[in-house]
Amino acid sequence: MKIVATNKKAHFEYFVLEKYVAGVVLVGSEVKSIRAGHVSIEDTYVSIRDGEAWVINMYIKPYEHANNFVPAERRARKLLLNRSELNELIGAVSQKGQTVVPLRLYFEGSLVKLEIAICKGKKLFDKRETIKQRDLARDRARELKN
């Protein structure tokens, strides 16, 4: 498993409740660009439309050596999920305060997979607590090192 991109802000901005793995429908030149590492999933989210999951605002740089057909950089891309997983996502999104956020993009063999999670937004005091815990862990690591 080769991790290509991670959403570092997701764990800071949200509480992760449940994770899923989804395939992504891509064009051949997009796969080549992802293999080269020219992808970003920052500010990306998952939308449910017409009973299908779509990843919105995922940036994939156009492949330099592509011929005529160059897809849009930030187009909506369909996610491949089981019907039961889709139903769980639809139920979670319909509840107030929950959203679906991509966590990381990786290759599993030759397939591009996107790890998504049902998340609940953190309040400001929760973010402060996260920062405090991170600082304490860093201080403990320094003390153990010395």
Commentary on this structure:
This protein has 146 residues and is an alpha+beta fold. The protein has a single domain (2-145), classed as Small protein B (Small Protein B, Chain: A). The chain contains 4 helices and 9 strands. The strands form 2 sheets. The chain has a 7-stranded antiparallel β-sheet with strand order 1-8-9-2-7-5-4. Strands 3-6 form a two-stranded antiparallel ribbon. The longest helix has 22 residues, at 124-145. The chain is globular, with a radius of gyration of 18 Å. The two termini are 35 Å apart. The model has no long low-confidence stretch (mean pLDDT 88).
Q: Which band does the percent of strand residues land in?
A: 35-45%
Helix content: 25-40%
Q: What fold name goes in the CATH topology slot?
A: Small Protein B, Chain: A
Full CATH superfamily name: Small protein B
Largest sheet: 7 strands, antiparallel
Distinct helical segment count? 4
For this entry, what is the oligomeric state of its chains?
single chain
